[in-house]
Design brief:
- The protein has five helices and eleven strands, in the order ααβαβββββαβββββα.
- By secondary structure, the chain is of the alpha+beta class.
- The radius of gyration is 40 Å and the shape is rod-shaped.
- It starts with a helix and ends in an 11-residue tail after the last helix.
Amino acid sequence: MSLRKYLTSRVFFLQVLSAAAIVAVLVYLFMHWLTFTTDHGHEIAVPNLARLTEEQVEEKLDELDLDYVLLDSVDYRSEFPKYSVVEQDPLPGTKVKVGRKIYIKINSSGFSSVKIPDLIEKTYREAVPTLKALGLEPGTITYIPNLGKDMVLEMRLKGRNLKVGDRVLKASKIDLVLGDGKASYVDDSQAADSTAVPAETPKDEQ
């Protein structure tokens, strides 16, 4: 049989159809497998995990076929329960694929402690950034007579005097006693003169 007759024969036509059908089936199976393994075209909205414990996070994400990774704990935040989620990535509402990992950070069990820095004889403007850098807050300001205006003379916590190196909890409010800049030096002789009472003139000398 010549090539021309073979290409126009019924046998060749059936073989072409068979090959095309096989290719179509293979393509269909491949796309079906790809969709099954990657869940192509299906996205899930990331839930809000804030304030949930790690156990609650795992249970919630398992229901959505999502996973999570605990990155770290953060300094204690009083507005969140202990050991609850305070940060997550991606953010709530973000569309992700099945199996996506959600990165979370957990709240600590309580405030950690820090050492009181040496603020004595520093100005108020110098003291405030130092306190905030350590996670502390400036509290009540009290002025007493002293030449050093706005100079820190004492540090207190709830009425208790603090010394450099004392440990306090983060987020504590440190009360500061400052100089008012109005005190002046008074000479002892001037003070004595100012308090002396003038002597009375005897009557028989008048």
